[in-house]
Amino acid sequence: MSHVACRVTIFAVSLYASTVVQAAVVTFDFEADAVGKTTPFTDTVGGLSATFGGSASVCASSNLFVSLTGNVLIQAFCGPVSQSGPLSIDFSSDLSHFDLNFATAGGAGILTLSALENSTAVGTATFTSAVPAGHFNGEGTASFNGTFNRVVLSTSGFLALDNANATVTAVPEPEIGSTVFVGLAGCALLVALRRAQNKARPQWRAPALRVVAPETSTSACVPYSGQSPLSLVMMYFPDATLRRERALRREELKIAQEQYKDTRNPETRVAYLGALKRFADLVRKNALVKRETSPSY
After folding, report:
1. Eight-class DSSP state of 73
2. What is the tens place of the pLDDT at every residue in 94-103?
3. Fold (CATH) for 23-169
4. Where are the domains of the chain?
């Protein structure tokens, strides 16, 4: 597995994690349902299915409400007058949040929302509607948080519903998760192998130089222990005319030395030795230089 593959794997893990926690909000507003459609029926939006039960019909609101617009699910309006009682909504996936607009016929009323996980009760909440100015039906908003897949809505009179918003926590397919984590394990193995190779690799040592200054007849071996060899030029030959060339050779040798220490392949070794030779040629302009190369590279 290459470093590029590792980066792709890490990106996939991040995407996987974001998918696990990303919440999708789906709205059921009955606009795609034909007027006169009666319960029970199932609507599917964004991959989530909701089955509406009880006794009610899809009707045009006809400006009857303020917060409920367009098509609404309502009792005893465009359907039989016998429609009454609780309304239920069953979802194909678990929800973490649910809210909707509701209306109670003939004035303010109390709506009771019961949330269930299959047949197990999760919780109950009550909400009171208020009559908007210029209207005669009570309107309100109901909501619930938790883990559930069914809600039951009831009131003492006729009930109308609209804009049912369901929040679903998306869970990726198991195959996606297993593939991502296998790739992550391979990436970890690659890192361990690279670390083992780096520990087994011999330490790099730079050559030593024997420099003989022109005004003396003695020589000295100067192992610079990783220090840039061009500092020797500054020490022994401070001629101002060579400063520009010294700066160029210093930068060249520094780059070649770092590349060879990092990669340790034949190409960078040749480049490093070439830069070192050019350094020696510069030194020979002012002094006799004998280069002794240590055996370790």
Report:
1. E
2. 999 999 999 9
3. Jelly Rolls (2.60.120)
4. 23-169, 208-292
